[in-house]
# Entry
Amino acid sequence: MIKAINAAGIQNDGVPFKKPTVDLAELSEITSSGRLTWIECVVDSIIDEAPKILEKCGITMDASLLLSGYVSSYEDRGDTLGLMIPFVVPGNNKAQTAPILIFMRKDLILTIHDDYGGKITKLYNYAPTLLRKLPKDADTWADRQTILLARIIDEICETNFSILRLIVERAEQFEIDIAGSRQITRDISLELSDMKTSLLTFLNAIWASYDTVHNLKYGDAEMVSDDEVILGKFEVILGRLDRQIQMAENVMQMVATGVNVVQAEVTNKVTIFIIWWTVAGTAALVPNTLATVFGLYPNHEQLFGPISYMLIMSAILSTAFAYYYVRKFFGKSVGIEKLKRFRKKPT
# Structure
């Protein structure tokens, strides 16, 4: 189902116009009425609705060619240029991608996306101000639509960058929760896996966007301007994408370091637990063995006092012996120093 169709553009007299809530049947008339028209479509299923919209706009390119690409796609047919750029959107504890299709022919830019393209809708709200700054001459049609295309792609990239901020905030909150004094029942490995998956999804989307923008700048498409100054806008976008990739890789390294720290802390706690149970087992093993041996003698009840004394002394000696060797091989890493904080300081 087509949820909304909005139109904006520049009329033949150079005056910008904006028409919200346009019917599908009006598209052919609107696209032929001005020097530049931007059709912004929100649908619930891109696969089902894109062919209908393309037919009304007079675009013969098959949308499935773009959708068959991995995350992003670039298709140049001379008089028609097709792009697919990913939106990175928050999902169920993981980031995921949603496609936006961009078609461009002379004096027409068509964007098709689902509800995740909210930022593009906001950009459309400021379309008259944006269009008013574009070149108005009839022979500058390529410059005009290239500038608008660069602005749309830049908005998509900025939207994706906001997802990285959410991932960083989640990683910082996770670190605070793990280091805090109050712990809650949680699957640490699952949360770390979700964060790493979100970062990989973000990196794949940014790399795919980088390739598409690179093709726009150096692909020499007929629908794109040849002006080096205007093409420099794509170079600015490439620089921003490159910085986003570097930041995402740094966050990935931070998450990996956090994983190592958490694993080391858990390993240390388990090791200390095992060590102290070893000391306790050694302390109980020796007197238990002696008690078993003394129980074999007849009339051992008459020797209760000496036997009890020997069992107590053997327990003390075996505990001291086990603790001595634990301290010798593990030093202060057995957690005994934490008990000192409960002692009163001498006055």
User: Anything to note?
Assistant: The chain has nine helices and seven strands. Residues 213 and 335 are 56 Å apart (CA to CA).
